[in-house]
């Protein structure tokens, strides 16, 4: 695709502040953990965003701020899939270039930002990493609706994580907007000798569901950049197409607006 035209501009994350959330949330019963929210406030044309966990005993924590003027496009990408398939590692690999040792389970949602430049246009990727554990499902479902793209992840060494995909597709059907771009990702290809899901089988499944398909290794960094950058290129293409279709309703480069919904894409 257009990866030659892409340069990284900057990245930031909630991870340092969210470690305090993680710790507090680990001590909190799921029923007490009401929700994790992103709050946006507009002051003098600068948008400040912060994430809080609403729960007794947990103080709201300011996580990051960003200006709406320093990008051409803003896309929200949400990772979903069973616990342990490697969603957090994929996000960390892409945003921080590392494979975190002893990665704990995600509590609720985590949030990172990375800005890339594609053919001279700055693209801010807002990446939401959701918990795969069933007990957080009611929290994570609320993040689907505003997503421009969903990365549905399974573990190629875990048949169970593949078998659960129809269940995840039902979640997407129910909670995501119907114009969302979805890509199926088989992670952990560095563990080839433990593979339980053949590539052809996964490709056929993705084809049948009109999804893109890619295999990755967060550990070895295989296809991780490609995953996010191809997705960004696809979202830009869709946004431009949407602009053509709707004349002036979609944002164009330089307008710096959030693209909330995109027209349906031809995934084949
Ligand atoms: N070999 C290998 N291990 C991986 C890879 N990606 C993740 N892991 C390991 O898989 C385990 C789970 O990774 P996470 O990124 O926490 O998985 P997750 O999907 O975010 O899990 P939840 O937060 O519980 O939903 C960790 O022990 C990682 O080190 C990979 O590409 N290769």
TrEMBL record:
Gene3D superfamilies: P-loop containing nucleotide triphosphate hydrolases (3.40.50.300). It catalyses: GTP + H2O = GDP + phosphate + H(+). It is found in: Autolysosome membrane; Cytoplasmic vesicle, Autophagosome membrane; Golgi apparatus, cis-Golgi network membrane; Golgi apparatus, trans-Golgi network membrane. Keywords: Cytoplasm, Cytoplasmic vesicle, Golgi apparatus, GTP-binding, Hydrolase, Lipoprotein, Lysosome, Magnesium, Membrane, Metal-binding, Methylation, Nucleotide-binding, Prenylation. Signal peptide: none annotated. GO terms for cellular component: autolysosome membrane; autophagosome membrane; cytoplasmic vesicle; Golgi apparatus. Its main location: membrane. Its EC number is 3.6.5.2. GO terms for biological process: Rab protein signal transduction. It is a lipid-anchor. It comes from the Eukaryota. The keyword Phosphoprotein does not apply. One of its GO terms (molecular function) is metal ion binding. Its cofactor is Mg(2+). Pfam families: Ras. NCBIfam families: small_GTP (TIGR00231). Belongs to the small GTPase superfamily. Rab family. The small GTPases Rab are key regulators of intracellular membrane trafficking, from the formation of transport vesicles to their fusion with membranes. Rabs cycle between an inactive GDP-bound form and an active GTP-bound form that is able to recruit to membranes different sets of downstream effectors directly responsible for vesicle formation, movement, tethering and fusion. RAB30 is required for maintaining the structural integrity of the Golgi apparatus, possibly by mediating interactions with cytoplasmic scaffolding proteins. This is Ras-related protein Rab-30. It comes from Scomber scombrus (Atlantic mackerel).
């Amino acid at each position: 695709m257009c990866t030659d035209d892409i340069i990284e501009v900057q990245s930031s994350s909630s991870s340092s502040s969210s470690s305090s959330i993680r710790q507090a949330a680990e001590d909190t019963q799921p029923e007490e953990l009401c929700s994790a929210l992103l709050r946006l406030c507009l002051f003098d044309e600068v948008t400040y965003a912060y994430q809080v966990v609403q729960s007794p005993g947990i103080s709201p924590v300011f996580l990051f701020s960003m200006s709406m003027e320093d990008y051409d496009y803003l896309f929200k990408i949400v990772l979903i899939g069973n616990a342990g398939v490697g969603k957090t590692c994929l996000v960390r690999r892409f945003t921080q270039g590392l494979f975190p040792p002893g990665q704990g389970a995600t509590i609720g949602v985590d949030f990172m930002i990375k800005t890339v430049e594609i053919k001279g246009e700055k693209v801010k990727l807002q990446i939401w990493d959701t918990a795969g554990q069933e007990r957080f499902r009611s929290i994570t479902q609320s993040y689907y609706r505003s997503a421009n793209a969903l990365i549905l992840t399974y573990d190629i060494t875990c048949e169970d994580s593949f078998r659960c995909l129809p269940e995840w597709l039902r979640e997407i059907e129910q909670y995501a907007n119907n114009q969302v771009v979805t890509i199926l990702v088989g992670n952990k290809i560095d563990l080839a000798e433990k593979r339980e899901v053949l590539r052809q089988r996964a490709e056929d499944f993705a084809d049948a569901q009109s999804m893109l398909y890619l295999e990755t290794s967060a550990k070895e960094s295989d296809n991780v950049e490609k995953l996010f950058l191809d997705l960004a290129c696809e979202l830009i293409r869709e946004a431009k197409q949407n602009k053509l279709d709707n004349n002036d309703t979609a944002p164009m480069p330089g307008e710096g607006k959030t693209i909330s919904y995109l027209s349906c894409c031809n995934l084949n």
